[in-house]
Amino acid sequence: MPAISSPISRYFPWLIIAIFAVLNLPAAALAAHISDVVDQSLLEQAQRILSLRDQTVRIALLGCLLLGVCCGLLGSIIVVRQFALAGDTLAHAVLPGIALGYLWAMEKSPIHLFIGAVIAGVIGSFVVSLIQQTTHLKRDTALGIVLGGFYAVGIVLVSVVQNRLPGDAAGLKSFLFGKAAAMTEIDLYLITSITGLSIVIFVLFFGQLKVISFDATFAKSIGIPERTFHYLLMLLLSWAVVAALQAVGVVLVSAMLVIPAATAYLLTDRLHILVWLSVIIGMVVSTVGVFISFLGPRLPTGPFIVLTAATVFSIAFVAAPRHGRIARWWARRKQAQQIRRENVLKAIYHLQEGGDFQQEWVGVGELIGQRKKRQEEVLREISLLDKSQLIRWDREGSRLKFEEAGLTRAKEIVRNHRLWELYLTNKANIAPDHVHDDAEKIEHILGDEIVKEMEASLVETGLDPHGKEIPGLD
Length: 474
Description:
This protein has helices spanning 8-23, 34-37, 42-51, 55-80, 84-93, 95-105, 110-134, 139-164, 174-177, 185-214, 216-221, 226-267, 271-293, 301-319, 325-354, 364-371, 375-387, 404-427, 436-442, 448-456; strands spanning 362-363, 391-394, 399-402. The relative contact order is 0.09. The chain has a three-stranded antiparallel sheet. Strand 2 and strand 3 form a beta hairpin. It contains 20 helices and three strands. It is elongated. The chain is mostly helical. It has three domains: 8-321, ABC transporter involved in vitamin B12 uptake, BtuC (Orthogonal Bundle); 327-402, Orthogonal Bundle (Arc Repressor Mutant, subunit A); 409-456, Orthogonal Bundle (Diphtheria Toxin Repressor, domain 2).
C-alpha cells in the first residue's frame, strides 16, 4: 500500500531534539510538587515555572505537551468517525491491566504497567467487536458494556493491591485521577515513543485513515483493509490512553481525546486542518493546565487541563466563525430577512399578475393587504428593498414598481415555487392541494442546478398544478 506523505514528517525530528534539550537543562532536586517545597508568592511561583528551572516542571510540561500531540492526532480520527465513546471505553478497560501489571512486577514499573494496560485494552477492543458481530446490539451498547465491566474489575483489583500495602504505597490511585507532577523520565520516554509512533503511522497512512473515516464502504471497495486499520487505531488508542493515565487519569483521559478534536471540528471542515488544529489545541490546553496546577499547593493537573480544554471548546461553541452559535444565529437572521424580502417581491409579482401585468405600479395599500402583515412591518420591508435597488418606491404617490433585478428575482421565486409544485404532483403523486406549503419553504433555497434538473425531468412546464403560468427567466 503506498505511503501518504504529510507535513508532520518535517517537524518530527525537531520534536525529538526538543525533548532531549529540555531534559538536559540544569535540574534542581526532583520533588513531587514545586509548591510543596518552597513558599513563594504567586508571581515568583509563575516566574519559576516559566524559567523551567525545576526538572519536575520540565518533565510534566513536556509529557503533557506530547500527550496533547498524541491525543490530538488520534482524537481527530475518532471524532470524525463518530467513535468518541471508544476512547472512554479503552480508558476504563485498561485499568485491570494496570493492576495486573503492578502485581506482575510488584512495583510501579512503567514498562510492566504499559504491557498490562495494552493487553487489557486490546482485549477490551476485541470484546466490543465480538459483541457487535455475534449479537444484534449496537456499537454504543457494546462499548458501554465493556466500559462498565472492565472498569469494575479494575477497581476491584486496585482495591486489592491497595489493601495489601500501607497507605498509598502502590501509587495506583494516581492512575484514577492523574498526577502529572509524579511523572518520571521513564514515563516521559514512554510517552515520547507512543507519540512518535502515532506520528509515523499518521504520516504513512493518513490517506487511508481519511478515506476510512468518511466512507468505510468505499474504502473496502478500493482495497483498503478497513478492519485492519480499525484494529490499528484501537491499538494506538490503547497506547495513547496508557500514556495519558499518569497525567490526567482514567476518569479524564477520554476528555483529552475528544475535547481538542471536537473544538477543531467546530473550526474547520477540512480533515488535515482539523488534525493540525486538534494537535495545537491539545498542546495549548496541556501547557495552560500544567501552568495553573503548579501555581498552588496540591492542585490537580489533569482536571485543570480538561477544564482549560472545556473552556476553549465553550469559546469555539459560541464564537466559531461558521459553526458557532453566534454565526449560526446571524446566518438564520440573514436568511429570515432574505425570505421576508423575497416574499414581498413575490407578493408584488402576484399583484401584477392579478391585473394581467397591465399596471407597472402597485399601490402600497394593495401590497399591505396582499402580505397580511402590520403596516409598519411591510413599510420596513419596502424600505429595505428600495435601498437594495430591487424596487422603486414612490413615497408621494404611495406606490412602487420593480427594478430589473427585483423583477428577475421575483420571477425566480415564483418559478421555483410552481415548478416544485408541478414536480411533486407529477413525480411524487401528491395532490395539488397538498403541495403549496412545502413549496413555500423550498422556493427560497432551490439552486439553479436543481431547478434545471427538475425542469428537465418534467414533460410540460408551462402551467403549475393550479393552472397558473410558470414564468420564464427571459
